[in-house]
Amino acid sequence: MTSDGNPDLAIELRGISKAFGPVQANKDISIQVKRGTIHGIIGENGAGKSTLMSILYGFYKADAGEVLIGGKTTPIPDSQAAIDAGIGMVFQHFKLVENFTVLENVILGAEDGALLKPSLAKARKLLTDLAQEYEMDVDPDAVIEDLGVGQQQRVEILKALYREADILILDEPTGVLTPAEADHLFRILKGLKDEGKTIILITHKLREIMEITDTVSVMRRGEMTATVKTAETSPEQLAELMVGRKVLLRVDKVPATPGETVLSVRGLRVVDDQGVERLRGIDLDIRAGEVLGIAGVAGNGQSELLEVLGGYTQGTGTITMNGEQIDLTGTASDARTRRARGIAHVPEDRQREGLIMDFGAWENVAFGYHHSEPFCRGLFMDHGAMRDDCAAKMERFDVRPPDPTLAAKNFSGGNQQKIVLAREIERNPDLLLIGQPTRGVDIGAIEFIHQQVIALRDQGKAILLVSVELDEIMALSDRIAVMFDGRIMGERLPDQTDANELGLLMAGMTGKDAAA
Amino acid sequence: MDFLDIIQILDSSLRLATPLLLACLAGLFSERAGIFDIGLEGKMLASAFLSAAMAAYTGNVWLGLLAGVLASLMLAAIHGVASITFRGNQLISGVAINFLASGLTVVIGEAWFGLGGRTPQLEGAARFHEITLPFADAIRGVPFLGPIYADLLSGHSILVYVALACVPATWWILSRTRFGLRLRAVGENPAAVDTAGISVVGLRFAAVMICGVLCGIAGAYLATALSAGFVKEMSAGRGFIALAALIFAKWRPWQALGATFLFGLLEALGNRFQSLELMGIAIPTQFMQALPYILTVVILAGFVGKAIPPRAGGEPYVKER
């Protein structure tokens, strides 16, 4: 079937549907993307944004619907067809061969002939030209695994440009970037737009949508709920469209009233399996009734800090909890002893460290405390008590569906996080370690989780918050410490700093470097 | 031990290393594409049997070689369908192929020839014979280099030279051609290959088939060149030794040559020194003959440095979700 569309539209999707088993990821989606614009697609996690774009790139096959490119019906059975149609995609998780060079990655699949040498020579020339044109400096001979994520992302963009893509899709491109890198990316995208290329930006960050897009489409639960001009909308309106109800974007909180020091860390060092020093002498204090936020780009030692405090990595230095020194290497350095001391931990990776995905919610809610009352009687577990306890917690934390026997993997990201949070908070800890509390969590649940954290603070508990989302750190923290390369670069008060200053610290520059 | 003894030991090492080298390169193609293959052993065995059987029927060793390669290709195709198309467990598929080959060769052999699983003794044109390289006799008299050329390099069956030629060929294909780049990429990150618009399934099947051809040659060499006929279980764990050599060689062709030659040398030493006295202690024959297997265990236990396998090795490719 050939149907004529508007040739001014770079892409038109008509009635796209896609189901994964019983889950309807995309329901009858239609969208029009004008040539030469930056078109945002926003929606909560699981709204179906990535699925829709993967269909457009030929990575998944749609169950129904058609794709029009430049006004012509274009079937896209596989990625090769998408590339031929001038579509390039930068996935959220990069599709690069880690131990290949930049050049090899760029030509993979787009070689000129059976022999590599001429292809590589030609690609090197073209790549240098492209890199200059769009100020994307990358060494063509660098090996991917030696590059930072920002650079790897540029390689992905270059890959698409090398294949002469006219339409570039970027899936959550700023999740792994520092604010400065994100700004650089947006400059590149604007340059591409000026060249007449069409860009589709998938994100869940309202700020980015407002900053860079011309038009924005909102998705909710697999459906396209609205498409509006960015200039004619507001973050509040978009948030409402995403969630389907009014959302409080700010966190309401009263000023903190910090009490005694709960946790005191001095000269903390951690060396990993490869012999690399991941923490290089951390000093910090957290008092009762305050939230200390740790900002930083992922991989600068925040994870190790949480792990050593939570008791599943060993380190050197001293940690004092409520005035008593904590064992860092001996037999009492395990997570169970930490819990007994009043340290609760909501790990960064809830699917790997926070939950056992195949186990029921009622079992997951008991983990870590399964050896104590009321879950345990002598040698045996009291399943009835565990289920009742889980049901009660699910009600208080608004976990949906409120079914204790459902396996953890069958809950959405936000509800999984609520299960972990319920387990840790309800044990009344003195200190809560919480890592990436809202990663992969939808806006509605973010609001709830933030309220819980602040409520815990107001009960006089100490909270150590680690997050790569600067907005979250700014919103929740009473003090902000910035980590870079295993060190704390500095501490700031949220009302006396801004994203720029924190961004510089996150990139390892102190105030002096920035001024120079 | 004089110079000629050393030449003789090296000569026999080369003979014994040849099937290992072919199987090792076979495994290299498969594993660099991300498909683990512990069925090298079974493919060699099946090829050894069918090549010997065909050579015995027709009296033509080349037809035997062809039949052997086809047998090996068939098992490779089964491995491909199980582990690529149906995304099954590659180790289990490999184990199944080994059992299948081990049982079928004996059962069919007994049905066809009634010699207790053996094939008839191969003679004349039904076997690969040693070929003498040009000028071998003329140069033999030259001191040192003469014997190396005439006695060590010359006087092997054509398949030995084929195996040796496969080493630079494999290196060239992997590092210098488009196919090689894609093959290495699919073993490291199949998603990168898929999103670049190349068929992951097609590439992996190609690699598994190349593996089948090389295993087929290795098996035919065992039955029609190294020996004169098929004997049950004649592959004798060589497929597994080749795997150990592959790890030892860190999945690289030139290193594979070195590693398999080392195993060949150990086997040759074991054969030559049936009884050996070292510093007054008699070393049992069994120990000497066990040397290659002992080295295999040592290598697989990771005593020879860190070997990093292809990152997507052993994992069926499934798009996310």
UniProtKB/TrEMBL annotation, chain A:
Keywords: ATP-binding, Nucleotide-binding. Residues 11-246, 263-510 form the ABC transporter domain. This is Heme ABC transporter ATP-binding protein. Gene3D superfamilies: P-loop containing nucleotide triphosphate hydrolases (3.40.50.300). GO terms for molecular function: ATP binding. PROSITE patterns: ABC_TRANSPORTER_1 (PS00211), ABC_TRANSPORTER_2 (PS50893). SUPFAM superfamilies: P-loop containing nucleoside triphosphate hydrolases.
Automatic annotation (TrEMBL), chain B:
The chain crosses the membrane at residues 12-30, 65-84, 91-113, 153-174, 205-231, 290-308. It holds the Pfam family BPD_transp_2. Keywords: Cell membrane, Membrane, Transmembrane, Transmembrane helix. InterPro entries: ABC_transp_permease. Its main location: membrane. The keyword Transmembrane applies. Coiled coil: none annotated. It is a multi-pass membrane protein. It is found in: Cell membrane. The keyword NADP does not apply. It comes from the Bacteria. This is ABC transporter permease. It comes from Jannaschia pagri.
